[in-house]
Amino acid sequence: MKNLESIDWEPFLVSIKLSFITCVVLFLFCIFLAWFFAFKKFKFKNFLETLISLPLVLPPSVIGFYLLILFSKYSIVGEFLEKNFNISLAFTFEGLVIASCIYSLPFMFNPLYSAMLALPKNIIEASYSLGKSALETLFKVILPSIKPAIMSALVITFAHTMGEFGIVLMIGGSLSGETKVASIAIYESMENLDFTTAHIYSLILLIFSFVVLFCVNFFKKKKI
Protein backbone atom coordinates (compact mmCIF):
# COMPACT_ATOMS: atom_id res chain seq x y z
CA MET A 1 0.00 0.00 0.00
CA LYS A 2 1.40 3.36 -1.06
CA ASN A 3 1.71 5.94 1.72
CA LEU A 4 1.18 9.69 1.45
CA GLU A 5 4.92 10.43 1.46
CA SER A 6 5.41 8.52 -1.78
CA ILE A 7 2.63 10.34 -3.63
CA ASP A 8 3.69 12.90 -6.25
CA TRP A 9 1.99 16.13 -5.22
CA GLU A 10 3.38 18.17 -8.11
CA PRO A 11 0.20 17.85 -10.24
CA PHE A 12 -1.75 19.55 -7.44
CA LEU A 13 0.78 22.37 -7.28
CA VAL A 14 0.42 22.87 -11.04
CA SER A 15 -3.38 22.80 -10.70
CA ILE A 16 -3.33 25.37 -7.88
CA LYS A 17 -0.94 27.62 -9.82
CA LEU A 18 -3.09 27.40 -12.94
CA SER A 19 -6.30 28.05 -10.98
CA PHE A 20 -4.84 31.04 -9.14
CA ILE A 21 -3.50 32.72 -12.29
CA THR A 22 -6.73 32.04 -14.16
CA CYS A 23 -8.76 33.57 -11.33
CA VAL A 24 -6.64 36.72 -11.16
CA VAL A 25 -6.64 37.27 -14.93
CA LEU A 26 -10.37 36.62 -15.32
CA PHE A 27 -11.35 38.75 -12.32
CA LEU A 28 -9.41 41.78 -13.55
CA PHE A 29 -10.89 41.32 -17.03
CA CYS A 30 -14.47 40.45 -16.03
CA ILE A 31 -15.10 43.30 -13.59
CA PHE A 32 -14.80 45.70 -16.53
CA LEU A 33 -16.51 43.36 -19.00
CA ALA A 34 -19.48 42.76 -16.67
CA TRP A 35 -19.74 46.49 -15.90
CA PHE A 36 -19.76 47.32 -19.63
CA PHE A 37 -22.45 44.72 -20.38
CA ALA A 38 -24.59 45.70 -17.39
CA PHE A 39 -24.65 49.46 -17.88
CA LYS A 40 -24.02 50.04 -21.59
CA LYS A 41 -26.24 49.50 -24.61
CA PHE A 42 -24.63 48.44 -27.85
CA LYS A 43 -25.24 46.32 -30.93
CA PHE A 44 -24.72 42.56 -30.91
CA LYS A 45 -24.95 42.46 -27.09
CA ASN A 46 -27.06 39.27 -27.10
CA PHE A 47 -24.70 37.64 -29.58
CA LEU A 48 -21.65 38.43 -27.42
CA GLU A 49 -23.40 37.24 -24.25
CA THR A 50 -24.11 33.94 -26.01
CA LEU A 51 -20.50 33.71 -27.16
CA ILE A 52 -19.21 34.26 -23.62
CA SER A 53 -21.54 31.58 -22.24
CA LEU A 54 -20.71 29.06 -24.98
CA PRO A 55 -18.15 27.12 -22.84
CA LEU A 56 -20.99 26.21 -20.46
CA VAL A 57 -22.52 23.89 -23.07
CA LEU A 58 -19.70 23.25 -25.53
CA PRO A 59 -17.59 20.13 -24.85
CA PRO A 60 -14.11 21.14 -23.63
CA SER A 61 -12.51 18.87 -26.22
CA VAL A 62 -14.08 21.00 -28.97
CA ILE A 63 -12.64 24.22 -27.53
CA GLY A 64 -9.32 22.47 -26.94
CA PHE A 65 -9.23 21.19 -30.53
CA TYR A 66 -9.71 24.60 -32.10
CA LEU A 67 -7.32 26.29 -29.67
CA LEU A 68 -4.72 23.63 -30.45
CA ILE A 69 -5.08 24.43 -34.14
CA LEU A 70 -4.87 28.16 -33.37
CA PHE A 71 -1.76 27.71 -31.19
CA SER A 72 -0.05 25.41 -33.69
CA LYS A 73 2.98 26.79 -35.52
CA TYR A 74 1.19 25.94 -38.74
CA SER A 75 -1.59 28.46 -38.09
CA ILE A 76 -1.31 32.17 -38.89
CA VAL A 77 -1.40 33.13 -35.19
CA GLY A 78 0.98 30.40 -34.05
CA GLU A 79 3.45 31.07 -36.86
CA PHE A 80 3.37 34.83 -36.15
CA LEU A 81 4.03 34.37 -32.42
CA GLU A 82 6.83 31.88 -32.95
CA LYS A 83 8.53 33.78 -35.76
CA ASN A 84 8.35 37.26 -34.20
CA PHE A 85 8.39 36.61 -30.45
CA ASN A 86 9.69 33.05 -30.19
CA ILE A 87 6.51 32.13 -28.31
CA SER A 88 4.98 28.68 -28.56
CA LEU A 89 1.63 28.16 -26.82
CA ALA A 90 0.83 24.55 -27.66
CA PHE A 91 1.81 22.16 -24.83
CA THR A 92 3.08 24.97 -22.60
CA PHE A 93 1.83 26.35 -19.28
CA GLU A 94 1.23 29.75 -20.90
CA GLY A 95 -1.03 28.16 -23.49
CA LEU A 96 -2.80 26.31 -20.71
CA VAL A 97 -3.52 29.60 -18.91
CA ILE A 98 -5.03 31.13 -22.06
CA ALA A 99 -7.16 28.04 -22.69
CA SER A 100 -8.33 27.96 -19.05
CA CYS A 101 -9.26 31.64 -19.15
CA ILE A 102 -11.38 31.07 -22.25
CA TYR A 103 -13.04 27.95 -20.86
CA SER A 104 -13.67 29.43 -17.38
CA LEU A 105 -14.76 32.87 -18.61
CA PRO A 106 -18.52 32.40 -18.04
CA PHE A 107 -17.94 31.09 -14.51
CA MET A 108 -16.38 34.43 -13.57
CA PHE A 109 -18.44 36.68 -15.82
CA ASN A 110 -21.98 35.44 -15.17
CA PRO A 111 -22.09 35.93 -11.35
CA LEU A 112 -20.57 39.41 -11.63
CA TYR A 113 -22.86 40.38 -14.50
CA SER A 114 -26.01 39.12 -12.76
CA ALA A 115 -25.10 40.90 -9.53
CA MET A 116 -24.47 44.19 -11.32
CA LEU A 117 -27.78 43.92 -13.18
CA ALA A 118 -29.58 43.37 -9.86
CA LEU A 119 -28.18 46.53 -8.27
CA PRO A 120 -30.75 49.31 -7.72
CA LYS A 121 -30.27 51.96 -10.40
CA ASN A 122 -30.67 54.78 -7.86
CA ILE A 123 -27.37 53.76 -6.20
CA ILE A 124 -25.51 54.29 -9.47
CA GLU A 125 -27.36 57.50 -10.25
CA ALA A 126 -26.65 58.86 -6.76
CA SER A 127 -22.94 58.23 -7.25
CA TYR A 128 -22.92 60.06 -10.58
CA SER A 129 -24.95 62.94 -9.11
CA LEU A 130 -22.23 63.38 -6.46
CA GLY A 131 -19.67 63.90 -9.19
CA LYS A 132 -18.11 60.43 -9.09
CA SER A 133 -16.59 59.14 -12.31
CA ALA A 134 -17.51 55.79 -13.87
CA LEU A 135 -14.35 54.17 -12.48
CA GLU A 136 -14.90 55.62 -9.00
CA THR A 137 -18.47 54.37 -9.07
CA LEU A 138 -17.31 50.92 -10.14
CA PHE A 139 -14.66 50.53 -7.43
CA LYS A 140 -16.26 52.48 -4.58
CA VAL A 141 -19.95 51.71 -5.07
CA ILE A 142 -20.62 48.76 -7.36
CA LEU A 143 -17.92 46.27 -6.30
CA PRO A 144 -18.42 46.77 -2.52
CA SER A 145 -22.15 46.19 -3.09
CA ILE A 146 -21.65 42.80 -4.78
CA LYS A 147 -19.07 41.21 -2.48
CA PRO A 148 -20.96 37.90 -2.15
CA ALA A 149 -21.14 37.58 -5.94
CA ILE A 150 -17.42 38.35 -6.24
CA MET A 151 -16.54 35.68 -3.69
CA SER A 152 -18.80 33.15 -5.40
CA ALA A 153 -17.31 33.94 -8.81
CA LEU A 154 -13.75 33.55 -7.52
CA VAL A 155 -14.46 30.30 -5.68
CA ILE A 156 -16.39 28.72 -8.57
CA THR A 157 -13.78 29.75 -11.15
CA PHE A 158 -10.93 28.42 -9.01
CA ALA A 159 -12.71 25.11 -8.45
CA HIS A 160 -13.73 24.77 -12.09
CA THR A 161 -10.14 25.29 -13.22
CA MET A 162 -8.89 22.77 -10.63
CA GLY A 163 -11.15 20.12 -12.15
CA GLU A 164 -10.48 20.81 -15.84
CA PHE A 165 -9.55 17.76 -17.88
CA GLY A 166 -10.49 17.76 -21.57
CA ILE A 167 -9.15 21.15 -22.54
CA VAL A 168 -6.04 20.65 -20.38
CA LEU A 169 -5.29 17.35 -22.08
CA MET A 170 -5.78 18.84 -25.56
CA ILE A 171 -3.71 21.99 -25.03
CA GLY A 172 -1.18 21.05 -22.36
CA GLY A 173 -0.74 17.30 -22.63
CA SER A 174 1.03 15.79 -19.63
CA LEU A 175 4.38 17.48 -19.09
CA SER A 176 5.50 16.86 -15.50
CA GLY A 177 5.89 20.07 -13.50
CA GLU A 178 4.47 22.23 -16.30
CA THR A 179 1.14 21.05 -17.70
CA LYS A 180 0.37 17.85 -15.80
CA VAL A 181 -2.49 18.79 -13.48
CA ALA A 182 -4.34 16.70 -10.88
CA SER A 183 -7.10 15.52 -13.25
CA ILE A 184 -4.50 14.27 -15.74
CA ALA A 185 -2.63 12.54 -12.91
CA ILE A 186 -5.81 10.66 -11.95
CA TYR A 187 -6.34 9.58 -15.55
CA GLU A 188 -2.76 8.35 -15.89
CA SER A 189 -2.92 6.54 -12.54
CA MET A 190 -5.97 4.64 -13.74
CA GLU A 191 -4.23 3.79 -17.01
CA ASN A 192 -1.28 2.42 -15.04
CA LEU A 193 -3.63 0.50 -12.70
CA ASP A 194 -2.28 2.54 -9.77
CA PHE A 195 -5.61 2.67 -7.97
CA THR A 196 -4.14 3.87 -4.66
CA THR A 197 -2.81 7.08 -6.18
CA ALA A 198 -6.01 7.54 -8.17
CA HIS A 199 -8.04 7.12 -4.94
CA ILE A 200 -5.93 9.69 -3.06
CA TYR A 201 -6.06 12.28 -5.86
CA SER A 202 -9.79 11.72 -6.40
CA LEU A 203 -10.57 11.95 -2.69
CA ILE A 204 -8.69 15.24 -2.38
CA LEU A 205 -10.61 16.71 -5.33
CA LEU A 206 -13.88 15.35 -3.93
CA ILE A 207 -13.29 17.01 -0.56
CA PHE A 208 -12.16 20.20 -2.27
CA SER A 209 -15.31 20.27 -4.45
CA PHE A 210 -17.55 19.78 -1.40
CA VAL A 211 -15.85 22.64 0.45
CA VAL A 212 -16.21 24.85 -2.63
CA LEU A 213 -19.94 24.19 -2.94
CA PHE A 214 -20.38 24.77 0.79
CA CYS A 215 -18.58 28.13 0.49
CA VAL A 216 -20.66 29.16 -2.54
CA ASN A 217 -23.92 28.41 -0.70
CA PHE A 218 -22.57 30.27 2.33
CA PHE A 219 -21.74 33.39 0.30
CA LYS A 220 -25.16 33.31 -1.41
CA LYS A 221 -26.98 33.38 1.93
CA LYS A 222 -24.67 35.74 3.80
CA LYS A 223 -24.27 39.43 3.14
CA ILE A 224 -20.60 40.39 3.49
From TrEMBL:
Q: Where in the cell is it found?
A: Cell membrane
Q: Which residues form a coiled coil?
A: none
Q: What is the lineage of its organism?
A: Bacteria, Pseudomonadati, Campylobacterota, Epsilonproteobacteria, Campylobacterales
Q: Which stretches make up the ABC transmembrane type-1 domain?
A: 12-216
Originating organism: Campylobacter volucris
Q: Which UniProt keywords apply?
A: Cell membrane, Membrane, Molybdenum, Transmembrane, Transmembrane helix, Transport
NCBIfam families under this entry?
modB_ABC
Q: What is this protein called?
A: Molybdenum transport system permease
A single MF term (Gene Ontology): molybdate ion transmembrane transporter activity
The membrane spanning regions, by residue number, are: 12-39, 51-69, 89-109, 198-219
Cellular component terms (Gene Ontology): plasma membrane
What function does this protein fulfil? Answer: Part of the binding-protein-dependent transport system for molybdenum; probably responsible for the translocation of the substrate across the membrane.
User: Which family does the record assign?
Assistant: Belongs to the binding-protein-dependent transport system permease family. CysTW subfamily.
Please give, as recorded in its UniProt entry, the membrane topology of this protein.
Multi-pass membrane protein
